[in-house]
Amino acid sequence: MKIKNYILFFLCFILSSCLESDIKEIEDLKATIEKLKSDLENIDVDKEDVIILLDSLKSRLEDLKQQIELETDKSEEKVSPFLSSYDGTIWADSENYYSDFSDIKFSNSEYFISFFNIGVNASYCEGWKKGETIYDGVKWNIEITRDEENVFWINYDYYGFSEEIEYSITYKYEVIDGLLNFSSTDDQTFIFNPSERNYSRDFIDTGEIIELEGCTFY
Predict the structure, then answer these.
(1) Residue 217: its pLDDT value, please?
(2) Are 207 and 124 a contacting pair, CB within 8 Å?
């Protein structure tokens, strides 16, 4: 009985201490558990209950390892000040329903910006994510070059069907006094208002609705 109590105490100590262990230590503990299970074959105690406890602890350690890996991956992702502030907001040309400028939605997710282009005959939306994208053979690359609480710059490299950059544009967004000020290196400028439109398929006043990569109408 004393041996079993000692083992139980040792297991509890391992479980509490491993909460702050790194992944390598967890792997070492799992190896120790396997050795303890092997050593129990030569100890005259009720081995079945102890082995069940060891297997349970090993499973718990594996769960902790996966949790640590997940939290590590999340912590390594750079938090976006701008997207954190304006997650889920949509901006539009308040004076023109069928505008020359697409409505813009910011999201603190993989597809961090979406464009809703509302037209009489057809409307479409498209989302962008960081890095390289190839869609229907067309290639482009997105890089966030400035990211502050109210300032957000995006560099867009367009390759088309080739391996060489055909053109590059930097899109600049800045929220001032509740309005989204937009400019770009190809001489576009505009001021967007917070959108009050309903982006449901049933409410969009248009003909065909086309959804491209990374974006959907509600």
Answers:
(1) 79
(2) no
3-state secondary structure of 156: strand
Q: What is the pLDDT of residue 74?
A: 54
28 contacts: CB under 8 Å, gap ≥ 6: none
Angle CA 169–114–194, to nearest 5 = 100
Domains and CATH numbers, the chain: 2-76 (no CATH), 81-211 (2.40.128)
Q: Which residue type does 150 have? A: N
Q: Which residues pair with 104 in a beta bridge?
A: 91, 115
How many Å apart are CA 65 and CA 20, to the nearest integer? 11
How high is the mean pLDDT in each 10-residue block of the chain (218 residues)? 50 48 69 71 66 72 72 64 96 90 94 93 92 92 96 97 95 98 96 92 87 82
Smallest CA-to-CA distance from 142 within 163, 182, 170 is with 170
The DSSP symbol for 98 reads: S
Residues 159, 165: Cα–Cα separation, whole Å: 4
Whether pTM exceeds 0.85:
no
Consecutive H or E run containing 76: helix 47-76
